[in-house]
Amino acid sequence: MRWHIFAIGKPKLDFAKSGVEEYAKRIAPFAPLTIDVLKACMRDEESAALLRRSDGMFRIVLDERGEQVGSRAFAEKIGAWEQRSVKEIALIIGGADGHTDELRRAADWLWSLSKLTLQHELALVVFLEQLYRAYTIKSGSPYHRD
User: Fold this and answer.
1) Pseudo-torsion of CA 121, 142, 76, 26, nearest 10°?
2) What's the pTM?
3) Within a 10 A sphere around the Cβ of 89, how many other Cβ atoms?
4) Mind listing the pLDDT tens digit for each residue in 15-63?
5) Which CATH superfamily is domain 2-139 in?
6) C-alpha Rg value of the chain to the nearest Å
7) Nearest by Cα to 96 from 46, 35, 37
């Protein structure tokens, strides 16, 4: 399964850049990962670009209205997608104004990382850490502790 992250706005904060690099490196042994940054613009244009870029992929849209799950449940979801032979997953992170209803409706899974509103750079780092955590749970690594 190949992960494609489509995010609005390039990480500018040093800690976010470092976090993205670190977790991308950690994820590499488990799954191929690409991160594509799209330019910030009007919400409708951002959502349209995100839809185009993720066409044909299983779409996970990060959104405050989405389902909240724990780390083990996320790992189980990945396992279920693998069982269904999902090949390409698009993780979509919007800009400051969020997503359009059209993009939300196009999601295969609408996911909320937290009830808190997260800045897009932080959401990217949190997602990558959770993806790494999910793969270590699946592999039996001692990284995750209950």
Assistant:
1) 40
2) 0.95
3) 22
4) 999 999 999 999 999 999 999 999 999 999 999 999 999 999 999 999 9
5) SPOUT methyltransferase, trefoil knot domain (3.40.1280.10)
6) 14
7) 46
